[in-house]
Specification:
Length: 478
């Protein structure tokens, strides 16, 4: 019976949930995709070929059991589908919304390779978990046995929260420390609502609190509380701070007002969505309304910025990227959404400097061409001499990526080993650092990466921490 429900890809075409029209969705910060109807989710899930070697699962960092929960969905067994999804993923409703499925599970779907169009895995995953929340199937963790050992987690982003969830399920006492006033990290303040509406994140935070996770907010480690004090209060520590130090754009005029960093800009916008008073937004400093906006960068953060600027009422929004569209690191789906909403991409362009003196009024743009491949295999951009021009701009947003803060110096722990890139040096299997009982996960180890990788790291580290706390002598001796 199960097989009859599946393998429908030959007769059923791939369909995404309906996308709200660009002229309407660009007026607000609500998610742009409508919900799947039950019959449509069932139909799309039934397209799965149930192949013997599921490449979708193999290319998912969490190795989610995708074929099984697609089959459960096709058969209308949604509570079972959710249970399978939740077994390997702490936040399936978040991954269903923001994972670059085109580069991961969907991009490696077998029927996609055969020309039939991939299964809409991300949309079905979102549908399953949203349905689970609506029906009350998502429950706070209730460990069978409470343990006395406590774990400190520094950073309330996806890696830290995933570890907190798994550790509470094992019965450990968990305290999460974070510099912000709300938990979630970039899920809360970095990703705009049109990709991830904030109630979706907040309901998970509330679930963790109901599970017994203690949150200490507005706490800057190294200032409000020392790292040594945290180590002294807990039996193990997990560092999950992420990377927040923005890369400098440089060039003449780079210090002018009107040139802002992407995270500052996105955080101000997201705070407004919570109803917060944001002086820098209200003053216009971090608000694109009525301005000619230029965003520098080609990753997902740049896409978040250009699409936010459109919604804030910018008169024009242009994105400068030094390579061409084919070599852009951001999601092609996000680039298409941005183009639909009125963003203009200026390919093979890079900033050389800025005009306007103390207040920016333009970007000096160098035109580029692609030369020989670099060490990664991508063609390196080369400057075309004599092709510079000035792009008028009232607001310039730099989205050139993030680097790790110097945690050993900031926290006064020089013995915490870091790599030559400044990321924390941690064992790739156990996530253990050079300090006994201290572990690290996510971007502070990997460098800027995907949310799904941080979730995987957090879940793995929870297992390692549990092993350390139950067998400290043997683990410390390894």
């Amino acid at each position: 019976m199960a097989k009859e429900r599946m393998l429908q890809f030959v007769t059923v075409n791939r369909e995404m949930p309906e996308k709200r029209p660009a002229n309407l969705r660009s007026q607000d910060f609500h998610e742009i995709y409508r919900e799947f109807a039950a019959n449509k989710a069932t139909e799309q899930a039934s397209r799965c070929s149930q192949c013997g070697v599921p490449y979708c699962q193999a290319h998912c960092p969490l190795h989610n059991n995708i074929p099984d929960w697609l089959r459960m969905t096709a058969e209308g067994r949604l509570e079972e589908a959710y249970a399978i999804s939740q077994a390997t993923n702490t936040f399936p409703e978040i991954c269903g919304r923001i994972c670059p499925q085109d580069r991961l599970c969907e991009g490696n779907c077998v029927i996609e390779q055969s020309g039939h169009g991939t299964v809409t895995i991300g949309s079905v995953e979102k549908y399953i978990t949203d349905t689970a929340w609506e029906n009350g199937w998502v429950k706070p963790a209730k460990p069978e046995v409470e343990r006395a050992e406590s774990v400190a987690i520094i950073g309330a982003g996806p890696g830290g929260l995933a570890a907190a969830d798994m550790l509470r399920r094992k019965g450990y006492q968990v305290t999460v420390y974070d510099r912000y006033d709300r938990a979630g990290g970039l899920l809360t303040y970095g990703i705009p609502g049109f990709k991830l509406e904030k109630p979706v994140v907040m309901q998970r935070i509330e679930q963790l609190e109901a599970s017994g996770v203690n949150f200490v907010m507005n706490c800057k480690v190294g200032e409000d509380l020392s790292f040594d004090a945290i180590r002294g209060q807990h039996d193990a520590v997990l560092i999950a701070t992420g990377v927040y130090k923005a890369r400098d754009v440089g060039g003449p005029g780079a210090g002018a007002s009107g040139i802002v960093q992407a995270l500052d800009y996105l955080t101000a916008s997201n705070r407004k969505s919570f109803g917060d008073d944001v002086e820098a937004y209200d003053s216009g400093e971090l608000n694109a309304e009525g301005k000619r906006v230029v965003v520098i960068g080609g990753g997902d953060t740049a896409m978040d910025c250009v699409r936010t600027a459109i919604r804030q009422g910018a008169t024009s929004v242009k994105c400068l990227y030094r390579r061409d569209k084919a070599n852009m690191p951001g999601s092609q789906r996000e680039t298409q959404n941005a183009e639909e909403e009125g963003v203009e991409f200026v390919w093979l362009s890079a900033p050389k400097g800025f005009t306007g003196g103390t207040t920016v009024d333009g970007v000096i743009v160098q035109k580029m061409r692609l030369g020989a491949p670099d060490a990664t295999g991508r063609q390196s951009p080369e400057v075309i001499e004599g092709a510079d021009y000035v792009e008028p701009a009232d607001l310039v947003i730099t989205a050139l990526g993030f680097e790790p803060e110097e945690l050993p110096t900031l926290w006064g722990v020089p013995e915490l080993a870091v790599t030559r890139w400044g990321t924390i040096k941690a064992d790739f299997r156990t996530h253990a650092t050079s300090l006994p009982g201290v572990f690290a996960v996510g971007d502070i180890v990997r460098g800027a990466s995907l949310v799904v990788w941080a979730i995987r790291d957090g879940r793995e580290a929870a297992d390692s921490i549990a092993a350390y706390l139950t067998q400290p002598a043997s683990v410390a001796a390894e």
